[in-house]
Succinate--CoA ligase [ADP-forming] subunit beta (Devosia geojensis), 397 residues
Amino acid sequence: MNIHEHQAKALLKDYGAPVAAGVAIFSADEAEAAARSLPGPLYVVKSQIHAGGRGKGKFKELSPDAKGGVRLAKSVEDVVANAREMLGNTLVTKQTGPAGKQVNRLYIEDGADIARELYCSLLVDRGTGRVSFVVSTEGGMDIEAVAAETPDKIVTVDIDPDKGVTDADVAEISSALKLEGDAANDAKSLFPILYKAFTEKDMSLLEVNPLIVMDDGHLRVLDAKVSFDNNAAFRHEDIAQLRDLTEEDAKEIEASKHDLSYVALDGNIGCMVNGAGLAMATMDIIKLYGAEPANFLDVGGGASKEKVTAAFKIITADPNVEGILVNIFGGIMRCDVIAEGVIAAVKEVGLKVPLVVRLEGTRVKEGKAILDQSGLNVISADDLDDAAQKIVAAVKG
Ligand code: ADP
Ligand code: MG
């Protein structure tokens, strides 16, 4: 789960991290009061969407010369004017994809006098099985470009979970970031704070880009992006409150209600599969035959008829879906249950696109018989290869 910058900053502030004063607003009418509550004379109006690259982003509805999704403002009036221009419009950044994201809230923040922009993130390093700090002096801009062009400017420091962030770790990170004086002193508290927040809140990513050294020599968290590990969500009800459903795909929200592992994609072949590995293989083979999957979907091992029905409904509700491939290997899952679920769903929502079904395993005969007797126009397939070719042909034909 992701949260907005202003929420991430509030959380880090609770842990004692240095962040600027700011106010989140949902309508332009709130902009003036928000700005007046800040010291000024420099303000920043920041689009709150679950994607980075906002500063360099462009609003779809505005002229290409208009300013991006993070704007400096030099007066209260300027804050209000920018808020009016930004709210409700669609921001397209490197991370949103061409469709962009609607800006439904803004963060009005105290402007900082920036001396240096640094990069600092924490993530779970699968290689070492530890939390790592990944830092660079080249912050504020595209860290992917830094990684590609000057990888030596990125330094990784992994943290021993038994010891936490030691003085030696802080020294190593600070030296990589060339911190001196007050900044180096601030670092002694900031890096342990970031680590504490990361581990206590079960984050999977905490990215501060930029972490800045201000003109006065002190550090400040200027941007914050946080993702949480969904598997630990049950321990953090306070964090569940921060979820913003307007940022999520409606189909994925529906799927999560039914405990289905579903990820919306851009293609036109809807997939219903059991097992994540088989789901990945199914997507691969669809691509091999020249088409694109519309989704990843693992209905799970012991899915009920209701769950299968829900899954089928989610797939058919996607307007991009021009064909459906059901690929089930019945181990724990029974093929007759799948067949009944498919039929129940088709009865409810209809079937307007070709449907290829490949069933194998437990109760496969019964499952196939149920489909045959249903009168549905089901194209049956014998194996994965056959199934993929048939659905691709049906969609292209
Ligand atoms: P994004 O990464 O989505 O583009 P950031 O929050 O990193 O958004 O903002 C982009 C840039 O805007 C920063 O690199 C910084 O130069 C500037 N900026 C952001 N917040 C402030 C602030 N409070 N004061 C001054 N400049 C800021
Ligand atoms: Mg940033």
Observations:
- The radius of gyration is 25 Å.
- The longest helix spans residues 181-200.
- The chain has three domains: 21-110, 114-239, 249-395.
- Residues 52, 209, 223 surround magnesium ion (ligand 2) (CB under 6 Å).
